[in-house]
Amino acid sequence: MKYIPLIGRILFSLIFIMSGLGHIFNGKEMVGMTQQMGVPLASLAVPLTGVMILLGGLSIILGYKIKIGVLLIIIFLVPVSFIMHPFWEIADPMQAQINMIMFMKNISMTGAALMFYYFGSGPLSLDKETKNN
User: Fold this and answer.
1) CB neighbours of residue 9 within 10 Å
2) How far apart (Å, rounded) are the C-alpha atoms in residues 17 and 59?
3) How far is the C-alpha of 82 from the C-alpha of 107, rounded, in Å?
4) Would you place residue 130 in the very low, low, confident or very high pLDDT band (cuts 50, 70, 90)?
5) 1 exposed, middle or buried (CB, 10 Å; 0-12, 13-18, 19+)?
6) What's the alpha-carbon Rg for the chain, to the nearest Å?
């Protein structure tokens, strides 16, 4: 049973680690999309958020300073959900559906991040905490 929180941390963190690396090393397309959505300083915002989610994902997967890592993820997820996936404003039904899925994915990951924030990293973590209240 002690492996379950570790597996959960790994599965949760992989998307942020992979996406963070993409933001940092292959961010040109993402900068263009971000500019189209009206984000100011997109060429700075994309790599900065890449570093945030990469560090957040690594923090969670390792179970090290998990509250800080979770906060980085939440600070990324909440605004990105509303700015980049405004499905309620999209006329094309297919694009609206895709953006609703992406929005809901981000919101559900925010919920999971809040659970990590409350319960901590669990066993098999660098912090050796099982519950942070």
Assistant:
1) 23
2) 10
3) 10
4) very low
5) exposed
6) 16
Helix ranges restricted to H, 1-133: 3-25, 28-36, 42-62, 66-84, 93-119
Q: To which residue do tokens 């066993």 refer?
A: 123
pLDDT tens digits for range 35-92: 999 999 999 999 999 999 999 999 999 999 999 999 999 999 999 999 999 999 999 9
Q: Which domain holds residue 69?
A: 3-119
Look up residue 86 and give its two tokens: 């405004």
- In a domain? residue 128: no
Q: Are 20 and 43 in contact (CB under 8 A)?
A: no
The answer to the question of residue 77 being in a domain is yes
CB 120 within 8 A of CB 132: yes
